[in-house]
């Protein structure tokens, strides 16, 4: 039985439901919130509520946004003929933060994972195919994760998109910059060798 006051215990329990937060971390966070000023705690509560009330999916790319269409889709400077397909909004932001890619995106909101009961019908694939029929896309970049699920999703999308005559590319995978060959696993080395290019 816990010896903490009920409101503290409730906060700890709520925090442990967040991904990656165990009881010890939840305890530290709860006491940090308890030590903070009332205005800081209220600002945190407002930020959580605001995210729940204002954030929605962009009707074009399905990125998280507070305006529709999202700023990326509205940006007239972006290349309309290139579409990068990602699994999640976090993947989109990782690519966007490189500052290299200037095309548009389509967020699937997951990957095909039959063991978890996630099939193509659970992802934004139908919407993707509708976009490809309507828009003048010349290249689709498959930027799914280099996992079994990401690979299965890329393969499934390849079968759907190839017949449309659109150029289809997949992001490279292999040894990361700064990585060492001797510490790389067999799959990473295989992908690195398969993805080699002329210098």
> In total, how many beta strands?
6
What's the N-to-C terminus distance?
65 Å
* Largest beta-sheet details: 4 strands, parallel
- Which structural class best describes the helix and strand composition? alpha/beta
Which CATH architecture of the largest domain would you pick? 3-Layer(aba) Sandwich
Strand content: 5-15%
Overall description:
The protein has 199 residues and is an alpha/beta fold. Helix 1 (6-16) packs across helix 2 (23-35). Strands 4-3-5-6 form a four-stranded parallel beta sheet. The protein is globular. The chain starts with 5 loop residues before the first helix and ends in a 5-residue tail after the last helix. 43% of the residues lie in helices and 11% in strands. It is built from eight helices and six strands, in the order αααββαβαβαβαβα. It has helices spanning 6-16, 23-35, 38-54, 71-74, 89-96, 125-134, 148-161, 186-194, and strands spanning 56-57, 64-65, 82-86, 104-107, 139-143, 167-170.
Provide tags for this entry.
globular, Helicase, Ruva Protein, domain 3, Dna Topoisomerase Vi A Subunit, Chain: A, domain 2, 2 domains, 43% helix, 4-stranded parallel sheet, two-stranded antiparallel ribbon, alpha/beta, 199 residues, single chain, 8 helices
Question: What is the strand and helix layout of this fold?
Answer:
Blueprint: H1 6-16, H2 23-35, H3 38-54, E1 56-57, E2 64-65, H4 71-74, E3 82-86, H5 89-96, E4 104-107, H6 125-134, E5 139-143, H7 148-161, E6 167-170, H8 186-194
Parallel strand pairs: 3-4, 3-5, 5-6
Antiparallel strand pairs: 1-2
Helix pairs in contact: 1-2
